[in-house]
Amino acid sequence: MASGDSSIDRRNRASSLEPLRRIGGLDPSTDHPETRGNRYRTAARQFRTALCRTQGPQTHRLYRHLARFDNTYRDVAARLRRLMDAERAKPKAAPPAPDKDTLTPDSAAATTPAAGSVSVAAPTAAGCAPAAPEIQRLGRYQLEREIGRGAMGIVYLGRDTAINRLVAIKAIPLASEFSDAELVEARSRFFREAETAGRLNHPNIVTIYDVGEERGLAYIAMEYLKGRHLSDYAKSDRLLEPRKVLDVIGRTADALGFAHKQQVVHRDIKPANLMYDPSTDTLKITDFGIARLSGAGSTRTGIVLGTPSFMSPEQLEGRTVTGHSDLFSLGVSLFQLLTGQLPFTADSMTGLMQQIAEAPHPPLRAFRPDLPACVESVIDRALAKNPDARYDSGAHMAAALEDCRSRIPSGLP
């Protein structure tokens, strides 16, 4: 939309995007000259996984609106044509459904998974085309049950049948997530990033055992962790003790410093990617390399996906991302784990980006006056807009956190 469009044109455009918002979570208010283009493409990509799980008229309507906005976006035109061809090829009337109380041996075998296993639908290159037969294994791993779900894939509890070891399997549908033109690059990046993350040997970084691809599903086999994501402790009524928060965030900073020395940047640090087990006091950073993969189809625009509320100004703007960006994200996480609030909030993606890039964060002690000033100083430095003004390394941030922790009385709620 050109900058000279009338207010009526803008209202019509927003109205046409309303189905996108309802189906995929896109905010039509972001469709104006300042946020068109790259940011729209980023928002559209964020609900792409949802598209492939939406069937029937909603899928058609969603693709038509995407094509109307920008028919050059990824492979939306080809996908729309495939859906229309498939619709035309459908028989006029579906065969009558079998009696619900009658189950033939063939249908029982097709619908009942083996005991102790879970079925995974294998995606096709067509993205939202009918799925291939369900699978219960990936490589040598037996899939037992789903234990998590994220923007880039599903995590299963699996068993390595070669050595009878429980593992966590993250399955990512590359063939559905990327167009044919991007699939080769995405596959290459997936294996490269997984291999790099697999070399990180640190007590606070999840261990990666294996990677592979089968029937369009790329997967990572990693150690199975007990405990809870720290996001469970980011609510105001479930906060950990401040000393414990500074301890786990300090360990995270130290682990990030180790990774940064190996030239590995996480790009999506947040409480949901930090696993903590109170019973053993074990902390692990998860999902190294996944955020990098999620940006594989967006490198032309300079946009790298992550979780916007935790992203640094330079990451949101598509500039070069270094370890300083992870430390900014860690500062946001620290603020949330101490207060139950995010330091930057807004009603739209546009407003959030502006807050992170330009607005000062609220003082920590406006929420937690009981904490020493040094904790606020750590957050202030971690959340500096200029990367060079942040901590030089994760190790330096960890040392500052440990110094503050020693000044907090034990048992402070």
Description of the structure:
- This protein is α+β, with helices and mostly antiparallel strands and 413 residues long.
- The protein folds into three domains: 7-89, no CATH class; 114-223, Phosphorylase Kinase, domain 1 (2-Layer Sandwich), CATH 3.30.200; 228-405, Orthogonal Bundle (Transferase(Phosphotransferase), domain 1), CATH 1.10.510.10.
- It has 15 helices and nine strands.
- The chain has helices at residues 7-24, 38-46, 48-51, 57-69, 76-89, 105-111, 174-177, 180-198, 242-261, 290-294, 313-316, 323-339, 349-358, 373-382, 394-405, and strands at 137-138, 141-150, 153-160, 165-172, 208-214, 217-223, 228-229, 274-277, 282-285.
- It has a six-stranded antiparallel sheet.
- Strand 5 (208-214) and strand 6 (217-223) form a beta hairpin.
- It starts with 6 loop residues before the first helix and ends in an 8-residue tail after the last helix.
Overall pLDDT score: 75
CATH architecture of the largest domain: Orthogonal Bundle
The number of domains is 3
Distance N terminus to C terminus? 52 Å
DSSP helical segment count: 15
CATH superfamily of the largest domain: Transferase(Phosphotransferase) domain 1
Tell me the strand order in the biggest sheet.
1-2-3-4-6-5
Largest sheet, strands/sense/barrel = 6 strands, antiparallel
Give, in order, the helices and strands.
Answer: HHHHHHEEEEHHEEEHEEHHHHHH
Bin the strand percentage: 5-15%
CATH class assignment of the largest domain: Mainly Alpha
The helix fraction, in percent, is: 40-55%
Total beta strand runs? 9
Principal-axis shape equals globular
**Low-confidence parts lasting 5 or more residues at pLDDT below 50?**
1-55, 88-117, 124-133, 293-305
Q: Which structural category do the helix and sheet elements fall into?
A: alpha+beta
Q: What name does CATH use for the topology of the largest domain?
A: Transferase(Phosphotransferase), domain 1
Query: Which value, in Å, is the CA radius of gyration?
Result: 23 Å
